[in-house]
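To close the section, here is one more complete example, presented without commentary so you can practise reading it yourself. The ligand is EPU.
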Amino acid sequence: MDKYVIHGGKPLKGEVTISGAKNAALAIIAASILAEDRCVIENVPDISDVNIMFQILQMMGAPVRMLSPGTVEIDTTNIMLPVVPYELARQMRASYYFLGALLGRCSHASVSMPGGCDFGLRPIDQHIKAFEAMEAVASIDHGMINVSAEQLLGAHIYFDVVTVGATINAMLAAVKAKGLTILENAAKEPHIVDLANFLNSMGADIRGAGTDVIKIHGVEEMHGADYSIIPDQIEAGTFMVAAAATHGEVLIKNVIPKHLESIAEKLLRVGASVTEYDDSVLVVGSPTLQRVNVKTLPHPGFPTDMQPQITTLLTQAEGTSIVTEGIWPNRFRYVDELRRMGAKIQVDGVVAVVEGPIELTGAPVKATDLRAGAAMLIAACCAKGATEIEDIYHIERGYENIVEKFVSLGADIRKVTDSEVSAPVLSQAL
Ligand code: EPU
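Output:
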C-alpha cells in the first residue's frame, strides 16, 4: 500500500499555486453532457476523482482529450449509454451528478448508488424530491438509481436541508425542463455559482446562483463552451491552515480571497496574520496561537471540508477550543488518528473539545477520508519525528500534486510506493 512518510517540525515557507476546484470540476464535467457538443475546460485538477468522471464519460461514448496540462476537450455529441455502473459510481460521490445531467439530456438515467467519503448516512432524498417535482419517475432497484421522464417540467422546489449535491442535480435537470424552475433554500457554495456560469455559457438561463433562490428558465438547445474552473477554496484553506499551524509563512496564489473569508477570520482569531491581495493571500503564523471556537455551516459559514484541518491546528493553540460539526454528524473519525500522535481531543456527538498546545509526535496513522488525510499531513508537519500516513488514495482523490506542493514549502515528505515497501518504512526513518 502506498504511503507518505513525513519528518515534521519545520515551518512551511514559500509560495504555492492552488489548482482548479475539485467540487466545481466534478459538477462541470457531468454538465458537459448537456452541451451535445465539444467543450474545452481549463484549470481541471489532475486528481483521481476527476479521472473517474472522465472514465464514466468515455464509457458512455463521449471522448475526453487532454489538450495541455489542466485543459481538456470533452465531446458529448454522442452519448450511447445513459448508465453509470457500480465499479465507477462506488468510487465517488459526484457520480450521481450524471443523474441530473442525463435526465436533462436523454430523459433517462441509471446510476449506481454513489460512494465517496464515509461520514455515516448520506441520504439522497432531496435529489429524488427535486426530480419527482419535475415530473420524473424515480426508483431504486438492485443498487441502481433509475430516473426517467416523458417531459421534464419546471417546478417550484423547496429543499428541506441546504444541500450542495441536490442543488446541483436539480440545476442540471432543470436547465432543459419545460418552463420555470425555482429552487428555494438552495446551497450557495462557490462551486454552485461556477456551475451556473458554465451552464449559462452553454446557453442555459440561470439566475440567482450564490443566493438561496435560484431561478432557471428551461431552454431547448444548449451548445459547447470554453470555460475555466475556479480555484479550489478548500485546497487554499488547507495551505492557509498548514502555514499557521507550523508557524510558517506561505503566499497562496491563484485564489479568490472572497471564498476564503470564513477561514481567514478564524486564522486571525488564533493570532496568525492574513493579508489579502487580488488573487493571493499571505498567511504568517505567530509563535503562539490562541484558542477559538469553530462551527461548520453551509456557505458562507465555515466549511465542513476544513473542519479536520482547523481541529488539527487547534491542538497547537493555547487553551480549550470547541469545534462543532454542523453538516456531517459523523465527521470526527480521524480524531482517533490524531490521538495516536498525542492530541488531547474529546468527542461527544457533533462536538469536539480540543486541548492545546500539545507537542504532537510522529506515528503511523491512516487517512480515514479526504480532508482527514489533509489534517494528517498538517499534523505530521507539526509533529516531532516521523509520521507514516496510510490510505493516501483518499488524499489523492482530491488534492493535485500534494506531495510536490508541500515539499516546495520545505516540508520533508516522501511518497513510498507499494514496490518500495519491502521493509517497515517508519522503523527505517526513525
Ligand atoms: N442531505 C440530506 N438529503 C439529501 C442530500 C443531503 O439530508 O438528499 C444532508 C446530508 O446528509 C448533509 C447535508 O444535507 O447533512 C449536506 O449534504 P450535501 O448534499 O450538501 O453534501 P454533498 O453534496 O454530498 C458536497 C461535497 C462535500 C461537502 C458537502 C458539504 C462534492 C462532491 N462533495 O457533498 O465535499 O462536504 O457538499 O459542503 O461536492 C469533500 O470535498 O471533501 C467533500 C466531502
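Once you have examined the C-alpha cells, check your reading against these statements. Residues 48-60 form the longest helix (13 residues). The first strand starts at residue 3 and ends at 7.
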